[in-house]
Each structure stands twice: as C-alpha cells, then as structure tokens.
Design goal:
The complex is a heterodimer of chains A (about 675) and B (about 290).
Chain A lengths: L14 E6 L11 H9 L4 E7 L5 H13 L4 E6 L2 H14 L7 E5 L1 H5 L5 H19 L8 E4 L4 E4 L3 H12 L4 E4 L14 E2 L4 E2 H14 L3 E4 L2 E9 L2 E8 L14 H5 L7 E2 L8 E2 L2 E2 L11 E2 L5 H5 L5 H5 L12 E7 L1 E4 L4 E2 L16 E3 H8 L19 E8 L14 H16 L2 E6 L9 H10 L3 E4 L2 E5 L11 E7 L4 E7 L1 E6 L1 E2 L4 H7 L27 E3 L9 H19 L3 E4 L4 E3 L10 H4 L5 E4 L4 E4 L9 H5 L5 E3 L4 H14 L1
Helix pairs in contact in A: 1-5, 2-3, 5-18, 6-7, 6-15, 11-12, 12-13
Chain B lengths: L1 E4 L10 H13 L4 E3 L10 H5 L1 H17 L6 E4 L3 H16 L1 H13 L9 E3 L1 H9 L1 H7 L8 E5 L19 H8 L3 E2 L13 H4 L1 H17 L4 E4 L2 H9 L1 H8 L7 E3 H8 L24
Helix pairs in contact in B: 1-13, 3-4, 3-5, 4-5, 6-7, 6-8, 10-12
The chains are: A alpha/beta (about 675), B alpha/beta (about 290).
Chain lengths: ~675, ~290
C-alpha cells in the first residue's frame, strides 16, 4: 500500500512539508496554497505550511519549531534546487536536533515554475514532486559526514606570474609549497614582456623581485625542468609524482658566472633561443636570460656534442672552477604528498602561420607581438634597438588585432588582452622611434581600470586607427610608393572603402590559446576543459577558481585569457581557497558514497574501470570490489552497472528510489 | 580510378587549345578519360544569376549522366574549366545540404528519365595530375625539360574558392609543383588567386582591363616570361586584350598566356599543333623552351 510502510528506522514517520513562494518566482506559476492543502492530506504528513522565503531565518525557524513541538522526524522543503539550499535546510534540521539526512528537497522552481508556462500544469507537476519527496523521505536513514585529515603542503604547477604569486602567498602563510615549472627558469610570459599596460611599468622590474623571493623562500621547494607525471589520492591527500629532467649543471654549485658559456667549443649560438622567440641563438650551454631563476646555466642535451655524440673537448668543464658541470645527471622522480594543488599552467600563442594571408614566415618583416616585445626590450636580441630582419628600421608600422581570435576559423573567443597590448606597442613605437603607426581593429576592448584613458592617450599620440579586419598582407606594389613595402589591404568600415596601406613592418597580435597538451594535463588532474581547451571552473560566478575535483584550484590564463592584474587576483583567490582547505586540518565528505555488499559481490570487476574517480579497487584476498569512501563522489555509475545489485549508494538506495517513483506515479 | 572528361562549352569554343592540349596530355600519360556522352552546359553562364535552381538542375544532369557510367568504382568527372568545376562542385554540396533543393532537382531529372545519387567525384585536372598520377610519373614523361621558362602559375578565383578541395586557399601550390616538375621555374608571386576581371571585361571594359593588367604587370615584374592558366575565361581576358591594355595604360605588356596543359604538352615533346599552340595570340615562341 502506498506509503504505509514503516519508516527506515522502524518509527512511524511524522513528515512536515514546507512550500516556498520564493517571492514571485514560484508563486507566480504554482498555486502554492493548493499545493500545501494537497500535501497536508498525504500519508504520514503531520503538518504542511507555506512561507514567502523558506530559506530566510524566520522560515528556517518555522521548521525548527515544528520539529520540536510536533515531534516531526522527516522534513520536506518544496522550493529551489538542492544545489542552492540543501545545506541551509540540513543545518536547520540539525539545529533542532534532527539528523540532517532525514530531510529532502522537492525542486519546484528550476524544474517547475521557471520552465513551465501553464499555471495549472505547473501546480500539477509540483504536486507530483512533493508526493514523491514525502514518500522518499520516509526511507531516509540517519547518516554522518566523515572527516578525513588533510596534508598541509600545497603544490603549485606552473611558475609564471600566477604560480609565483600563489606560491608566495601560501609560503608566507607558513605552508610548505612545491613549485613545479617545466622551463629552465620561472617567470613565464611576463618575463618576456617589455612594459606592462596601462601604467607602462617595466615588466622585469616588477617581476624579478618576486622571482628572487621565490628562490630565497625557506618554505618553497622549486623544481624547474620538471613535469607532473601522475596524480593520485583525493582532496586533502594527493600523491604527486614529478619527473625532474637533468640540467647537467649542479644547481647548488653554479653561480652563473658564464665562463663555461664563454669557453664552449662553439663560438656562436646554434640553438634558437626560446626566451627571445628564436630571434637570437644560444650555445648548447647557456643562461636562459640574465635574471633567470634559479640563476644557473644549463645544457641542451640535443645540441651539446658531449651529450649527443659523446665526443667533445669539454672546454666548459675546464673553465668551471667550481666543478659544477655534471654530464652524468639523470632524470629523477620525486613523490610528494600535498593537500591541495593549484594549476597555473598558462597558455601558448596562436601560430600565425595558420593565417597565410598575413604572410608570417613568408615576409621577414611580419612579426608577432611577442617577437616585438623581445625586439623592443633592452635585454632582447638587439639590445632594444628596433631593427627588422632585413636590417632596416621601420618608419611605418601596421599592428593587426584579433589574429586567431574572434575568428570562427580559429578561435571564436576574444583573447582579451590584445587590444591593450597593441595600444601599448603603438605607444612604444611612437615614443621610441617616432614611427607612424596604424592599428587595425574590429572593436576596441578597453574595459578595465585605466584602460580607456590609455586608449585616449594613444589616440592623442597620433596613432592611426582603422576599423576593419585586414584581408591580406602582400608585397604586391601597385604604385611606386608601395615598392619595397608590405601592403596591408583592408576594408575601412568607418568610411566604407577598401584601402591599401603600405608599411615597413607588420605586427600580428596573436591570440592566447590553451596549450597543445592541455587535454593531457586535465586528464592527469582529473578536471574538465571547455571546448577551447581552457580548464573549467566549478562555477563561472561563485566558484571561479575551483574545479570539479575538490582540492584542485586554477590560477591565471590556464582557465581563460586574462591580463596580469586579473591573473594575480585569481592566483590570490586560488591561494586563499587552498589555504582554507589545508589550514582547516580535515575535509568533510558527503555521505552519499557507494558501498559494495561483500556477501553478494562476485568480484567480476565490471565496476572498477567504470568509476570516473578511481575509487573502486579489488580486495585480492576476499575477491570482492571495495569502494574508497574518501574518493567516491556518489555518481552512482557502479550502482547502475553492477550485474548482481551488490553496489548500493547512500541517499540513493533502491528502496528510496522505488518510493520516490511510486510517489510520482501514484499521483499521476 | 575511372575518369570521364567533361569539357564544357568554353573548351569547344574560345578555349579549344585547352581541350586539345588536355586530351593530348591524357593520352601521353596513358589515361583513359573519354568524353562524357550527351553533356550539356554546366549552368555557370547567365543561368546562375537569372535562376539558380535551373542552373543547378543543368549541372545535375551532367552528374546524373556520369553516374550512369559507374562501374564497381565511382566515376571521377574531370572538369578543366574553373567555372564548370566550381558549379559542379557547388551543386553536389548544395544537394547534400538542402533537402528542398535536392527534391526540386530530383523532380527535374525524373522528367527526363534520370536520377542522381551523389556518387560522382568532381575533379580538377590539376588535382588529378598531382594527386592521382603523381609528380614522379609526370617527371618521367618529360622529354624536353623547360629550362629557363619562368612561369607565373595563375589559378584564378574559382579553382580554390570557396571550396579548397585539393589545394591551399590562400597560396595554392599544385600548379607550381607541376611546373617545377616539368623543368620550369615557378615564380613566387602573390596574385595567384586574384580575379582576372571575369565577365567585367565584356561589360565594364575599363574595370575588367585594369584587373587583368594588374596580374600581367605583377607577373612580369616578378620575372615571369609566361603565365599558366587553368581557366578558359582567364586565358581569354589575359591574352586577347593585351593590345588594348598597352593603349589604355601606356605600358609595354607583352606576356604569353598559355593553358598549363599546353606547357605540359610542350615538355612532353608533343607537336605544337596537337596542343593548340598556334591558337595563341601572344606567340609563346618568345618564351624559352616553348618554341
């Protein structure tokens, strides 16, 4: 018979039903008073009430009072999504002395009033959902949240400005931090920039103090040339395996005097220099850049004769009076335990050769923006002198915005920073070499603090702005004035004509994009990516640095394009999230985990590969599957898949689900 | 691979030399590509701008006829004229995408006892030579390497746009590769796909002339001593109006413009008449290795 069963704990259920108006959100579609009267007549229901805002203090108080006075032992709230207020009402129950898991919610807002046009139909559906909740809640059991202790150390992956900032905050708070970077030096893209917008402070001047703070911080273990290989465990208790590639130079001995580089048998550089985007070359033994941190040379094993062919006079070894060079160094693996992980793996830049119409790689005087950053930088390949690949100095420069971004053929998104970078560069070209500058833009996006003012300043600098997506960069001259120039062909959409603008130098503001290996990284850390490859935050507004894997947080551009201030702010938020997790000392685990009935489990292993959280293993002695409760997220995959019905899940037992279904069906 | 050859109207008229040289080259390379029996206009001409649906129905009739020749392998229909190539491709894509159009065309075909299932592959001869026959086999057929011939490969606007079926849309390469395989030097120039003026030359002559002139001038400036084309209308515009261009722009334009298949034929040592060299207005004799 319908809901005449005894409750799960043998007591007679005494259910209270609370129907929320949610202002007009629910009440405008659902006849809440009719719903209340309907609920009142359902079996086991002792009391049924409505209230304008059930989640408010007086609303919660109503429930608590009834629990005490009416001796209620089961509570149903018909309101919004449990994602929003499950915790609120559980707390209200607990406060009144009722186990919080003797509670369930019927979602009559997101699932009814917001998605139903017809008022009568809405009320009918709301009644069915309430009937189901009343039937289900009778089967609820008292549960306890489990507490698991957490490891206090934190790992930060990626040591650009975001990773550096997050690591320093945590280290200053007294936490031990492992900072893992795959390049030979920390600093990331910010270390390659000349000036930063809109204040025009020198990028290196504001970054390098933080880099040396990292190096000298007693709480930070810095691993460069290193990659995360494997991550296991769960929030509060991760185990991470890090691969550490050899530098072939002993870090603790090298003082970066550079005598080995001087002495190398190669008199000229041979390897395109990554720091200078290939605009210069370094020797097989080299210092990544003057302020590189750690301040140590390293050897490129592919270019070094000793390491690649085994034969070399090894002049570098002779030159080093500290005996720091060590050709015998091997790959090492380190395994550490941490409570939280912050991913700050950054971005790569769009490959401009994918847009052959702009001639990058074909015409030597077409540059990418990051190349120009190096070219104008005093520590760059030309010591800051702006000389093009053909040896000339540019008198007219064309800067093309949105290269690879806002383009359905490549990336549909706006890369965010390129307008400001282009403005900054236009300003520098005016200031440093008095060049005539043209900026070709689709829309100007200068939304943050001080940005529009900077745009205005650049307009007054005399920079030309042409609104239109550039069609082509060509060396085809139509007039004598165009001979020897790069001609930018563009529709100027403000005056409605197609223009040909001859320039000496073309600069492509290429889009930020996710790393090619972003998908491998996300798999390793068991997080999600957006379709563009950016790591996915848990909630775009309310959990912007959290991920769907508890204990793993995001900082900087790996989550989506952003500039330096935004990256730093996000790094701070990620550090705070990590700190609030590891500082608490324990994690509480929702008791909705699955369990396996060892008496009926046949040990078939069907469930093991299906579990997305790697929470199931096999007890080889008992030959049965076992769920690690700390890892289980309660997704129910194993429960559905188990051929013998041995996998069960708390809060979703067969009995509870059958009652819920029966509740809906009986009403319909 | 089973080929059929769809010449289109131009190759039986102003583009006769394209037809002659292509058939001669097929023969030399041992390709079996007989003419599609009963073919009609592809629909490119005035039809397309007057009534698109009728133009598509015309094009589809050719495809349906080709499909009747299907054996165990589908037919590859070679369409050398750039406009035919584009329209035949376009009707394939439109029929696949738009159910309504597919129905209208199917009804038209039914009225003449035909139907079409979409199995024919429309191919440009550049695609067939480079990707099916292969440059190695072409190199092997060369008896008179075109030493000193500097070719501006001109693809025109329709071969790679809007559909880039076999080559890069912005900087196509197949004709350049082919020319280099013949012992000539393909000149690097940026106007490979810029419009020749098309039918403008017949309507707004000054505008059309200017567009062709830009191409010829740039090719000459880059050191080309011949231009290779893959389209009968391009060839006509670029070659036949050079006298007028000299008058209009006061410039000494004098550049032979040949079908790329004529240049192939020359390298294969085929007789001048077989590949229609005598039909050209600007004599190719001036160009090295073409005499």
């Amino acid at each position: 018979m319908f809901m005449e069963n005894k409750a799960s704990d043998g007591e007679q259920p005494r259910v209270g039903v609370y129907v929320c108006y949610c202002g007009m959100n629910i009440a405008s579609k659902v006849d809440v008073e009719a719903l209340r009267q309907f609920a009142e007549k359902l079996p086991n229901v002792v009391v049924s009430r409505t209230y304008k805002f059930m989640c408010s203090d007086p609303g919660q108080e109503l429930i608590a009072q009834d629990i005490k006075e009416q001796k209620l032992n089961r509570i149903v709230v018909a309101s919004c999504s449990p994602l929003l207020h499950d915790a609120t009402f559980r707390k209200a129950c607990a406060k009144a002395g009722l186990n919080p898991f003797y509670f369930t919610m019927a979602n009559i807002r997101e699932q009814v009033s917001w998605v139903t046009a017809n008022s009568a139909a809405a009320t009918k559906k709301a009644k069915a959902l309430v009937a189901a909740a009343v039937a289900r809640v009778a089967m609820h059991e008292a549960l306890e949240k489990k507490r698991v202790p957490v490891h206090a150390d934190v790992m930060v992956v990626g040591a650009g400005i975001s990773g550096i900032h997050a690591a320093l905050l945590l280290a200053n708070a007294g936490k031990k931090v492992y900072l893992v970077e795959r390049e030979p030096s920390i600093g990331g893209h910010m270390g390659q920039l000349d000036k930063t917008f809109p204040t025009l402070d020198c990028s290196a001047c504001i970054l390098t103090p933080k880099m040396s703070e990292v190096k000298n911080h007693p709480n930070i273990t810095l691993w460069t040339l290193s990659d995360v290989q494997e991550v296991s465990g769960f929030s509060g208790n991760f185990k991470v395996k890090v691969k550490r590639n050899p530098r072939f130079v002993k870090l603790e001995l090298c003082v970066a005097c550079g005598q080995c580089v001087e002495a190398c048998v190669f008199k000229e550089g041979r390897v395109p220099d990554e720091y200078n985007i290939g605009l210069s070359k370094h020797k097989p033994i080299y210092m990544p850049f003057p302020q590189a941190t750690p301040a140590s040379v390293l050897i490129d094993p592919n270019a070094c004769l000793k390491l690649s062919r085994g034969k070399c006079a090894s002049k570098c070894v002779e030159a080093c009076d500290r005996a720091a060079i060590d050709f015998e160094q091997k790959v090492e693996y380190s395994e550490v335990e941490v409570g939280a992980i912050i991913l700050a793996t950054g971005y790569q830049l769009f490959d401009a050769t994918k847009m052959p119409e702009y001639g990058y790689g074909k015409y030597p005087n077409v540059y990418t923006m990051i190349e120009l950053e190096r070219l104008v930088n005093a520590a760059g390949p030309t010591q800051g002198e702006i000389v093009m690949r053909d040896g000339r100095k540019p008198k007219r420069v064309g800067i093309i915005h949105c290269v690879g971004s806002r383009d359905k053929r490549h990336h549909p998104y706006c890369s965010g920073v390129c307008c400001m970078v282009s403005l900054k560069m236009a300003h520098l070209m005016r200031e440093r070499i008095d060049a005539e500058v043209f900026n070709f833009y689709i829309d100007m996006r200068t939304t943050l603090k001080g940005y529009e003012e900077f745009y205005d300043r650049v307009l007054h600098d005399g920079v030309n702005f042409v609104r239109g997506r550039v069609a082509e960069v060509t060396d085809w001259a139509m007039t004598p004035g165009e001979e020897g120039k790069l001609v930018i062909r563009v529709e100027d959409t403000l005056i409605g004509v197609v223009r040909r603008i001859p320039v000496d130098m073309v600069v492509l503001a290429t889009a930020m994009e996710a790393h090619d290996d972003a998908d491998d990284v996300r798999r390793k850390f068991n997080i999600s990516c957006s379709k563009e490859g950016w790591f996915l935050e848990r909630h775009p507004k309310l959990a912007p640095v959290s991920t769907f894997s508890d204990g793993i947080f995001l900082a900087g551009v790996c989550q989506g394009p952003k500039d330096i201030p935004e990256s730093v702010a996000q790094a701070g938020a990620a550090a705070a999230e990590a700190l609030s997790l590891v500082d608490k000392g324990f994690v509480e685990i929702e008791p909705n985990s699955a369990w396996i009935d060892a008496d009926t489990c046949s040990g078939c292993k069907t469930c093991i590969p299906l579990c997305p959280y790697h929470a199931i293993s096999r007890d080889e002695q008992k030959k049965v599957a076992v769920v690690n409760e700390a890892l289980c997220k309660g997704c129910g995959t194993c429960v559905g898949a188990c051929p013998s019905g041995s996998a069960q899940q708390k809060l979703f037992t067969d009995q509870q689900l059958h009652q819920e279904i029966e509740g809906v069906l009986n009403y319909v | 691979m089973r080929y059929l050859y769809y010449p289109g109207c131009s190759l039986k008229g102003t583009g006769k030399a394209y037809d002659e040289s292509l058939v001669a080259v097929f023969d030399k390379l041992g390709m079996d590509a007989k003419e599609l029996p009963g073919w009609n206009c592809c629909g490119a001409t005035a039809y397309m701008s007057v009534d698109e649906t009728k133009a598509f129905a015309l094009a589809a009739r050719n495809l349906a006829l080709a499909e009747q020749e299907n054996g165990s392998d589908p037919i590859h229909l070679i369409a050398p004229c750039a406009a035919c190539y584009l329209v035949l491709n376009k009707v394939q894509k439109y029929m696949a995408e738009y159910g309504h159009l597919r129905e209208v065309i199917a009804n038209s075909l039914k009225a003449v006892g035909l139907n079409y299932h979409g199995t024919v592959k429309v191919r440009h001869p550049l695609d067939v030579f480079v990707n099916d026959i292969g440059l190695d086999k072409i190199k092997a057929a060369v008896s008179h390497p075109l030493k000193g011939l500097k070719v501006a490969s001109y693809y025109g606007c329709q071969v790679v746009r809007p559909y880039a079926e076999f080559d890069d849309q912005y900087n196509p390469q197949t004709m350049d590769q082919l020319m280099n395989a013949l012992g000539a030097d393909a000149v690097d120039w940026p106007l490979k796909t810029r419009c020749c003026g098309g039918t403008l030359t017949g309507t707004v002559e000054e505008a059309g002339l200017r567009m062709s002139y830009i191409l010829l001038k740039e090719a000459s400036k880059r050191g080309a001593n011949i231009m290779a084309t893959a389209c009968p209308l391009c060839q006509f515009n670029l070659e036949c109006y050079q006298g007028k261009m000299r008058g209009t722009f006061g410039d000494s334009i004098d550049l032979p413009v040949a079908f790329f298949t004529q240049i192939m034929g020359r390298a294969f040592g085929l007789e001048a008449k077989r590949i229609g060299l005598q039909r050209l207005f600007v004599p190719v004799k001036a160009a090295p290795a073409m005499a």
